[in-house]
Amino acid sequence: MDDEERESVPWPTVPPREAHGVIRLFSSSRYFAAFAVLGTFLAAVTLYVYGTLVVFQLIWSTIAEYRISVAGVKHLQVVFIEMTDVFLLGTVLFIVAFGLYQLFIQPDLPVPSWLKIQNLDQLTERLIEVVGVLLSVTFLAFAVEGVGEATLVEFGASVAVVIAALSLLLVVTHRRPEDHRSAPSD
Known about the structure:
elongated, mainly alpha, 7 helices
C-alpha cells in the first residue's frame, strides 16, 4: 500500500457484536484527543481576543495622548511586532487544534487545503513553518528595539544567521516528497 492509499484509510471500526470491551475502549480512546483540541482551540481564541483588545487599547491611548514623536513611533513598532507574535502563537495553537481534530476525530473535516492534515508529519511540518515565522517576528522585535550593547558587526552577524536559518527553513519545508513521486519513472 503506497502513501496515498494509507493517508485515505478511515478509522477502522469493529461491529459492536464482535468487539470486546477492551477493543471498544481502545478504539474510542481516540476521542480523548478532544480535550487537547478544545484546550488548544480555547487558548488560540483567548490569544486572538486578548491581543485584539490590547491593540485597541494601544491605539486608543496613542490617540488620547496625542504626542507625536520618533520615540513614540519606535514604541508602537515594537509593541505591534510583539502583538503580531501573540497572533502568530494563536495561529500555531489554532493549527494544532484543527490538526489534532482531523487526525483523531474527523479526518474529512471541511477545511482549506493549507489546513488539511492527514498525518502527524504534515502537522509537524505546518508547525515548523509557523514557529519559524513566529521566531523571526520575535527576532524582528529585538532588532527594531535595538540591542543596547551589541556592536554593528555582532548585530549584522546575528541578522545574517537568522536570514540563513529562515532560508534553510524555506528550502527544507517546501521540498515535498510528492514532487519526487509525480516525476515520470524511467
